[in-house]
Amino acid sequence: MFMQPGFAMLESGFTRAKNAANIMMKNLMDFSIGALSYWAVGFAIMYGTMEGLNWLMGWSGFFLLGNA
Description:
- The chain is mostly helical.
- The protein has one domain (about 5-65).
- It is built from two helices and no strands.
- Helix 1 packs antiparallel against helix 2 (about 20-45).
């Protein structure tokens, strides 16, 4: 999360001044989509309960439902 402002400054430094707002919006959308994807899928894979032979990753708690 704290790397996004650094990427925004780095990328806007490599572009023309008129495109700086577009770069900032792109980085905001990257963070927003990444956070929503983690909420929907990533948390369940990381912290979901492991039932049966699924020892590699969890399969419960998608969209924070269930008992993850």
